[in-house]
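WARN no homologs supplied; continuing
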Amino acid sequence: MTAQGRIAPAVELPPLVVFSHLRWDSPYRRPQEILSRIAQRTRVLFVEEPQFHAGDPGAIARAPVRNVTVLTPRTPLNAPGFHDDQIPLLSKLVANALAREQMYDFGAWLDTPMALPLLKKLRPRCIVYDCIADLAALPGAPRQIAQREHALLRMANAVLCASPGLWRVRRAQRDDARCVADSVDAAHFARAFDSRSTHPEVRALARPRLGYAGTIDERVDYELLNAVALARPEWEICLVGPIENVDRSVLPRAPNVHFFGARAHAELPAHFAGWDVALLPYCEENAHWNNMSKCVFTAADGMTGRVLLVMLMPMTMAAYSRSAVSRMR
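OK structure emitted
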């Protein structure tokens, strides 16, 4: 809206080439949500981290949604992610993909600073850094990532941060950084209000049902979950999501703990519809590098009238009023 009350014309968006440490087919979260919406106005080339392939370097391209092409590079190198050793091969593969897509004037969107060296030859019209997590704080993070993030913060035309905590740290270097916090797709999760839509696998369990949806990894407090399951054998604990970066021997083995595996985003409301309590069972020592996505994802279940049990991380207190958090408790 202009100062005169007229509706301003939509800004024309250039095509985007995106570099992400998350795969498009991973649990549905911020990158897919934002980029699917951007793809309604322009084309998106989503470049994933390379996969190992013993043959010649190549790439697999697919179109999961309209205007989005996902590129999965395949190289004979074992170096993880956007490692320095991968950059020469990735530069050629990305350049070839851009030529095939006829994307000659484009912007760059980075979810990870590790991909920064790829921009040297691409010369994008603009650069957006979407900081969705403190990747340098993750276990096993590449030693170069902090240096590359400092460089990216200097170069980027726009810096977005997914939580107030991420924003407070990065505004020290970029005072024009913006906090664009994760949110809930209310229309999508509104279906969970109808208990009749409960997923059959959930409906088969007794009540009460306590649920967590997200990646089942080193952030989760398995000792706590196991203790709760053993102390309350009549409670059915539902864990929805892929198991990653964790020794399976630490997972709870009680018969009332149920692992549903990775589920499509479209299925989640049906799982939520059958829960009585939503959980955010993270270890306190891992809270500092979690972003807002899981808070609001769990809040999506809270929107449907479930009780929320969350570990009171600083981001939780910042995101919600004290009265709301007290209701979660």
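Residues 288-293, 298-303, 320-329 have pLDDT under 50 and may be disordered.
OK
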